[in-house]
Amino acid sequence: MTALPNKSYTVLTNTIFKQLQNIVGTANCSKAKEDLACYAYDATARTYMPDAVLFPKNSSEISAILRLANKHGFFVIPRGSGSGMTGGSLAVRGGVIIVMTRLNRILKIDKENLIAHVEPGVITGHFHKAVEKESLFYPPDPSSSEFSTMGGNVAECAGGPRAIKYGVTRDYVLGLEIVLPSGEIINTGVQTTKGVVGYDLTRLITGSEGTLGIITRITVRLLPLPEVSKTIIAVFDKIETAAQTVSEIIRNRIIPRTMEYMDNASIRCVENYLKIGLPIKAEALLLIEVDGNEDETNRVANKLKTLCINRGATRVEKADTEEEAANIWKARKAISPALFCYGPDKINEDIVVPRSKIPDIVKKINVLRDETGLCIVSFGHAGDGNIHFNIMLDKQNKYELEKAKTAVEALFDYTLELGGTISGEHGIGITKAPYIKKEIGDVELTLMKNIKNVFDPKGILNPGKIFP
Fold first, then answer.
1. Where are the domains of the chain?
2. Could you give phi then psi for residue 138, rounded to 5 degrees?
3. Fewer CB in a 10 Å sphere around the end CB: N or C, the chain?
4. Rounded to whole angstroms, how far apart are CA atoms 438 and 434?
């Protein structure tokens, strides 16, 4: 199998550091320990201290940094908000972290052509608000949207609750400006609905986790803003009944805007965290949202309410106001931080199975919970089969940690047996790299490594990610 460059660690000398300061300015370049510590971790809670942190303002400065890295051989790691779940923005082998937050402008919202041009440091939630002021709609909505960046979303091909109806980030990225590891600046893609000239480099970069180039400009397509949306909460006293209801909704040819699932453990911890009146005795909740014009949306919402009741929901309620709907989604987005009430550490996986197999994967999670005695919490995007599987534990307890690793491996094996995938939207990074060969064959991995070598022959950009 083709090997990636196994580049040795290069010390960042004072001479090189001064050259970096000359590129980005003294105020935007630091190797103070307190500054390095702020960028040494991400949402995995793993820590790797970088050698320096840089805050460039444009693609020209990033190009100069990468040219310098090629000359001297130090590593470069791009970073957005550090909200990634698999360690993609960590300096696992040392090196310089490039923080993209100064490239934070919405360059243009083109209402005539339904596209927008943004820099990678734009916060996704801020972009949502900006386009909605123009009666436009950017559907990708990861749960971290209030702090994650557009560049990070593209690098990880982020999904979110609305993926069931509208797709994921790659379905909206039309074109990119990228700085290659060599320092060259290229443009990929188009500003039009169609375009098939040459290989699709835009899609190749989208989801490449910062290993092939650094994104400095993004062109995305937009949609007209739906007239209205309606939110429904369905309460179930059996997890399996909730899972079967998801499949029944799809069988009835209803495609909601979102269809989220919460188990009892996630309901309890969020209620303890927010105190908003969630039904803590329920075994499961489905949070469903539909959108469109007023008449059609009301008709579908009423149909969903009837279907959920007929399938065994003990209670179904529609949010009557925007505030009520906002509270429901606040609860869903609060799950991840709220889970730490169950333990100091978390193993967070995001498997995906065919929607018809959701009842099977839910049963498997219940079996793993019973067999291991671990605190296992599941929730996620039931509408597209993307279940977030969380084990809460104390990683200092070696016995618990070994049981957790065994449970993860068993879950991955069963997920693949059902025709699923071991990562729906979190990427591979470092945490899932040991498992990638379960899903990707040797020939395919060799091809991917060859692509990495073409883009980054010296192995300086975001090393140690994706490939085991």
1. 14-101, 106-224, 228-336
2. -115, 105
3. N
4. 9
Select from 393, 395, 235 the least CA-distant residue to 318: 235
Cβ pair 82, 89 in contact under 8 A: yes
The pLDDT of residue 11: 81
Domain 228-336 has CATH 3.30.390.50: no
Question: In this predicted model, what pLDDT tens digit does every residue of 262-314 receive, in sequence order?
Answer: 999 999 999 988 888 899 999 999 999 999 999 999 999 999 999 999 999 99
Q: Which helix (H) or strand (E) holds 248?
A: helix 239-251
**With a threshold of 0.85, does the pTM exceed it?**
yes
- For residue 72 the two structure tokens come to 């001297």
20-33 tens-digit pLDDT: 999 999 999 999 99
Residues in the chain: 468
* Residue linked to tokens 């070598």: 453
Q: Are 232 and 319 in contact (CB under 8 A)?
A: yes
Confidence tier at 1 by pLDDT (50, 70, 90): very low
Exposed e or buried b per residue across 12-27, where buried means at least 16 C-beta atoms within 10 angstroms of its C-beta: beeebbebbbebbeee
CA angle 179, 181, 183 (to 5 degrees): 55
- CATH number, span 14-101: 3.30.43.10
pLDDT at 326: 86
Main-chain phi, psi angles of 122, to 5 degrees: -65, 130
Per-residue pLDDT of 36-50, as tens digits, reads: 999 999 999 899 999
The beta-strand segments (E) located in 65-140 are 76-79, 96-99, 106-110, 115-118, 136-137
Rounded CA-CA distance 94/49 in Å is 7
Confidence (pLDDT) at 468: 83
d(CA 260, CA 234): 10
Nearest to 282 by CA among 303, 304, 301, 261: 261
Q: Which CATH architecture has domain 106-224?
A: 2-Layer Sandwich (3.30)
Is residue 319 within 8 Å of 325, Cβ to Cβ? yes
**What end-to-end distance do the CA atoms of the chain give, in Å?**
12
Whether 436 contacts 416, CB under 8 Å: no
Tokens found for residue 225: 């803003």
3-state secondary structure of 46: coil
